[in-house]
Structure formats: structure tokens, C-alpha cells
Amino acid sequence: MASTLLQASNLCKSFGARRAVDGVSLRVLAGQTVGLLGPNGAGKSTTVGMLCGLVRPDAGEVMLDGEAVTPDAMRAKRKIGLVPQDLALYEDLSAHENLRLFGALYDLKGGALAARVQEVLALVNLADRAREKVSTFSGGMKRRLNIAAAMLHDPALLILDEPTVGVDPQSRNAIFETLEQLKREGRSLIYTSHYMEEVERLADHIVIVDHGKVIADESPAGLHQLLPAQAALRFELATPLQPLHLELLRAEAGVASVAAGDGNRYEIGLTDSGAAVALLAWLEQNGYRLVHFATARASLEDIFLNLTGRSLRD
């Protein structure tokens, strides 16, 4: 079994009277990718802040490769690369200049810095745009440069906080190709996202937090065992579902969840696989033409909604 790289134990953090994180524990093995999921306000961002030493916990500890991670522990923090949700780049500098600046903050210099800049630019497929100002980059290119900056000092653990927010499908795929390359190299990753399909594609292990507590800590296969046997109906329509029909569909018998994907694609979580035929008939009766449909097992989104509830969060 792989050794433990990071161990977070009983992390707690309050802001005034509000307990943002309440006894969160998790671990990351060497070479493992852990998906960290939770609704808005669940405590993910505060947890990430404590994991990388930016936020001091009220209680509990984070150990990385045998060293405590705290705001003052510079040596331990240097073993972590953080890709923040908010872009951390200088728009008036080129990609190359940004990376040289960030590299200097990690005491990289001379030939070692020059070589590392070239390596991370190649990793994120930006070598041909290295001399261009970041202000001319698309959102996806900026996200990829953010990953390059986090990898400059060759960290043992890369933490990515919503790294695909606001990017198009092509850029999301390019980011994933980069992360999958890092996985093949044996890198350890923590990945937070609101996109369930991203976590399903990347993560070896998934931790779900809600109301500041861990409510699931399982492999993807283990998570599926937390639900009763459930099926899913996936389909594509010639035209999108109208909002009223979408709500009516959610209320149909046998429907556990309805999720909209790219284009006119949808996925319905079913409590009874026998309901699929009736639902397809319902769509046709309401004037929708099916382009394609298939049945499958319950998705991670079905499991997530089942564990955290379906009500909106602020």
C-alpha cells in the first residue's frame, strides 16, 4: 500500500459564532488524487486554507510528509503547490515573466529556474505563447498558466481549488489532460470542484463535506454502495427542456434527480429502473424528440444530492 503523504486530523475552524469546519479528517496517499466535494458553504475553502497552511486551525493538525503544516512552517508549505480559484497572475507581464517572478519567490534562479520555466510551460501547452502578455490570454490559458506557476517548485502535493471555473469545454479538457499527465507521473493531487463529472474522471478517492463535517470518505466504488441500487437514464433532445417541463419531470414517479449537461443532454437518476420507459414516453408526449438515450448506473451527482440534500445553498 502507498504511504500517507498528507494527514489532516480533526480540523476545526470558527469565524465568530459560525463553525465553518467541525472535525474534518482526511488523508492523501502518495500518488493519489483525492476529490474534495461539498455544497456552497460546506467548509471546503476553509479546509483547503488549513491544508496548505494559509489558515490556522482552532483545533486539529495537518501533517505533510512527517512535518506539521502551519502558517509559520515555511519548509512544509514549500512542498505544496496551490492553484487558487481566483487567478494569481500579473496581467501586464508575459507568461514567461510571471513564471520567473514566481520562481524567484521559491529561491529558484539561473539555469535551474530557466529550465523549470520551460518544463512547466510545456506541461500546460503554453510554450509557444510564453512571450505574450497574460492580458491577451483567454480564461482557459490563464487557468493553465496558474497551474504552471503552482508546479514551478516541484511540489509533493498539488491542491487545485475549482481550477476550471469559467472556462470553455476545450480548455477544461486541456486542463484535464495536464492533470492526467501529472497523475501518470505519480503526483499527489487534491481537487475541489462543483463539476461532478470532473471528479469522477480524475479522483481515486472522494471526500464529501457538508456543514463543516465529513459525511463520506470513500473510493468511487465505495460511494456507489452508499445508495440503494439505482439506475440512470441519459438522453439528448433535439430542443432543450423548458423550465416548466424540467420541474414537472423532477416530480415524476421514480425520479430521484435530474441534471442538465452540455447542449441538450440530461441525466435522470431513477429509484426504479422500470420507470425509464414511462419517462421516455412522457418526453415524447410533451413534444420532445429524442436524439439519443441510454441507461446507466447512478452518477456521482445522484450520490452527492442524496447525501447533501437538494435544497439550494447560499
What does the model show?
- The chain has helices spanning 44-51, 74-77, 95-105, 110-123, 139-151, 169-184, 196-202, 220-224, 243-250, 275-285, 300-308, and strands spanning 4-15, 18-29, 33-37, 59-64, 67-68, 80-83, 157-161, 188-192, 205-210, 213-218, 231-237, 255-260, 265-270, 290-297.
- The chain is of the alpha/beta class.
- The strands form 3 sheets. Strands 6-7-8-3-9-10 form a 6-stranded mixed beta sheet, sandwiched between helices. The protein has a 4-stranded antiparallel beta sheet with strand order 2-1-4-5, with helices on one face.
- It has 2 domains: 4-224, Rossmann fold (3-Layer(aba) Sandwich); 231-297, Alpha-Beta Plaits (2-Layer Sandwich).
Shape designation: globular
**Helix coverage percent:** 25-40%
**What order do the SSEs take from the amino end to the carboxyl end, as H and E?**
EEEHEEHEHHHEHEHEEHEHEEHEH
* Number of β-strand runs: 14
From the N-terminal CA to the C-terminal CA, the straight-line distance is 40 Å
The biggest sheet, with number of strands, parallel, antiparallel or mixed sense and barrel status, is:
6 strands, mixed
CATH architecture of the largest domain: 3-Layer(aba) Sandwich
Class based on secondary structure composition and strand pairing: alpha/beta
Q: The CATH topology of the largest domain is what?
A: Rossmann fold
Lateral arrangement of strands in the main beta sheet = 6-7-8-3-9-10
Mean pLDDT equals 90
